[in-house]
Each structure stands twice: as C-alpha cells, then as structure tokens.
C-alpha cells in the first residue's frame, strides 16, 4: 500500500507556488465538511493530514474533520446517506456501489494506480505467478480481489484448485512471516510490502496490474451525485486545498510523516516514514494532468473487466462512475 517517481518540474514549480500562498495557519472555524476515511490513518492520507496541519482546508473556508470508519465497506454508504460530504474508497467499490443502486460518483483519484499486490518472501519460492501452483495464499476475503486472483492464475496457466486460498481478513502478514503461507494476496505495496522490507525480509512485491488485471485507481474520493450537481463548490475547494497539501507533502516527506504519525494511533515513526516515501510518488498526478485526474477510458476498461468477471450484472458506463469537473484546473472534459 516501491518505486520512486520523480515529480515533474512543472508539478514541483506548482507546488512551490502553492506553498507560498497563505501562511498555512488557518485555525478559524469554517464550513463543516465531513470526510470519511477508507481505513485507519495511514500514509495514503499524507496529503490530507499535511493540508490539515498547514491550515490549507481552513484557508479554503472548510472545517474538515476526518473520521475513521468502523467498517472499510462503510464510507460509500455514509456518502450515499448524506452523512459525509466525501469518502475515500476504491475504484472497484464505486463500480459495485453503482450496480447496487447507490447514486455516488468518484470526483478525484487519491492514488492513481493499484497498490493491491501479490507479496511473497524468498522461502515461498515464487518467482512468477505460475509458481503459485500447489502453494498456500492468504487473502483478505474480498470478492473482487478473488476475481483478480482467478485472472492472474488463469493467465499463468495455474489451476485455481491447486492453490490453497485462506481468508484471514486484514491480518495478512503473520502467516507469511511465520511460513504458514507462501504468499499474501491483497496486501498493499506501500504498507505490507514496505513493512516486510523494513524487517529485512526481502519481499517480492508485484502489483496486480503487472499480473494481468487491468490498471485502475486504487483510492478515490467519492461524493453523492446529487451533491455534486447541486452544491459542488465546497468539494471543489476541498480538492484544491488537498492539491496544496499533497504537493507540500511531496516536497517535505518528513513533515508529511510527522502529520500522519500525529493523527494516527500508535504508528511507528520510522516505519511510517518509509511508507510515506513509498506512497508520495503515487499521490501526485501523472504527466501534466490536473491533480486527482481519472482517465475515463481506463475506468471503462476496468469496469468492463469487473462485468466480464461476474462482479456486476450489467456493463457499467464510466460516464456514470466519475467526473473530473471539480478538479483543480479541470477543463470539464471528463
């Protein structure tokens, strides 16, 4: 959830310009703005907590108070029910929510690429997906991730029945470290992958889009579609402030780490620092795209994949799943 990506000169200059705006100390109360996180506080939220720490949301007139969900499946439901202005969720969850009749839409990509990975240690002797035959793989028990694994095994010519898949929820690391499992599927490259590396265990970490699953935006910001149509400006202001926070975090990873550690519960500063370093390059937009850009054609390919994998009953239309219209510098063409 680890390759470093060099931030483009244009993006860096934009970051410097944005950081120079305002004193970042906005402590005054603003318009209440509810943000439901996807999970506990972690490095994926580095831009959010940097923006909070520097007062960028307050500068935008917003009183943002992130809430940790009791259930990772809850954020989209919170937005759909009007109990939050925005929620962090996952691209596949947006597709599933729309299929279930929830009128929600993704308004920005937070992490514009898969973090979900196949992770193993040298003792597992897994050089390629074909080596999963006869092995034990622990999973988080998420249905669409089971579809990913089926795709990966099929592409590698492995009979799924030859792989012992064990659902352990989110407790993926202990079975792999102890040797009770040969690999984990569903861990994030910037969290479990980094944690294992920091322990000196030399993990092999391969994101799913390198194994045959169409690429997608791992984490996205989701809003109620009616809210986007009727009252978009607070969301637009939130995204502009988050852009400032994300570029500030990219410029100063230590400050971003400090903000995440301060907001989190019992996070290890050294491990969090390593995770933030692995995460920050994935929080900035690709090329010269606006912050938070989502590629509709890529979303359509991934939605088609979920339909063909039997995860939804009708083929989704990407135009119903996302909008780029609220992004900073958005041209209204997505």
Give me a quick take on this structure:
The protein is an alpha/beta fold.
Can you walk me through this structure?
There is one protein chain. Helices cover 39% and strands 16% of the residues. It has 334 residues and is an alpha/beta fold. The chain has two domains: 9-113 and 217-321, Periplasmic binding protein-like II (D-Maltodextrin-Binding Protein, domain 2), CATH 3.40.190.10; 116-210, 3-Layer(aba) Sandwich (D-Maltodextrin-Binding Protein, domain 2). The strands form two sheets. The protein has a five-stranded mixed beta sheet with strand order 2-1-3-10-4, with helices on both faces. α6 (143-156) links the parallel β6 (136-139) and β7 (164-167). α1 crosses α10, α10 (233-251) crosses α11 and α11 (253-263) packs across α12 (269-279). The longest helix is centred in the last third of the chain and has 19 residues, at 233-251.
CATH topology of the largest domain: D-Maltodextrin-Binding Protein, domain 2
Strands across the major sheet, in which order?
2-1-3-10-4
- What is the CATH top level name of the largest domain? Alpha Beta
Apparent shape? globular
**Using DSSP, what is the number of strands?**
10
Biggest beta sheet attributes: 5 strands, mixed
Distance between the termini: 27 Å
- Report the uncertain regions: 1-27
Oligomeric grouping of the chains: single chain
């Amino acid at each position: 959830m680890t390759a470093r990506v060099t931030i483009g000169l244009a993006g860096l200059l934009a970051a410097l310009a944005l950081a120079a705006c305002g004193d970042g100390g906005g402590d005054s109360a603003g318009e209440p703005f509810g943000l439901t996180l996807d999970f506990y506080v972690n490095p994926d939220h580095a831009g959010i907590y940097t923006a909070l720490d520097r007062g960028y949301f307050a500068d935008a007139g917003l009183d943002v108070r992130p809430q940790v969900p009791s259930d990772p499946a809850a954020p989209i439901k919170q937005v759909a029910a009007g109990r939050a202005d925005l929620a962090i969720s996952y691209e596949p969850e947006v597709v599933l929510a729309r299929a279930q009749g929830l009128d929600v839409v993704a308004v920005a990509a937070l992490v514009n690429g898969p973090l979900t990975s196949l992770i193993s240690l040298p003792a597992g002797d897994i050089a390629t997906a074909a080596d999963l035959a006869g092995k034990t793989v622990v999973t988080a028990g998420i249905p669409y991730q089971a579809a990913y694994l089926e795709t990966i095994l099929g592409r590698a010519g492995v009979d799924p029945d030859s792989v012992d898949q064990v659902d352990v929820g989110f407790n993926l690391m202990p079975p792999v470290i102890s040797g009770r499992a040969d690999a984990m599927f569903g861990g994030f490259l910037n969290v479990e992958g980094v944690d294992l590396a920091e322990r000196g265990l030399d993990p092999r970490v391969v994101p799913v889009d390198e194994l045959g699953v169409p690429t997608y935006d791992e984490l996205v910001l989701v809003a109620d579609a009616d809210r986007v149509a009727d009252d978009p400006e607070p969301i637009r202001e939130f995204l502009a402030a988050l852009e400032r926070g994300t570029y500030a975090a990219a410029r100063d990873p230590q400050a971003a780490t400090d903000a995440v550690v301060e907001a989190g519960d019992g996070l290890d500063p050294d491990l969090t620092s390593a995770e933030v370093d692995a995460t920050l390059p994935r929080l900035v937009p690709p090329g010269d795209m606006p912050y938070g850009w989502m590629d509709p054609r890529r979303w359509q390919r991934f939605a088609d994949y979920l339909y063909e994998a039997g995860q939804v009953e009708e083929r989704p239309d990407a135009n119903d799943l996302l909008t780029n219209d609220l992004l900073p510098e958005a041209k209204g063409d997505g």
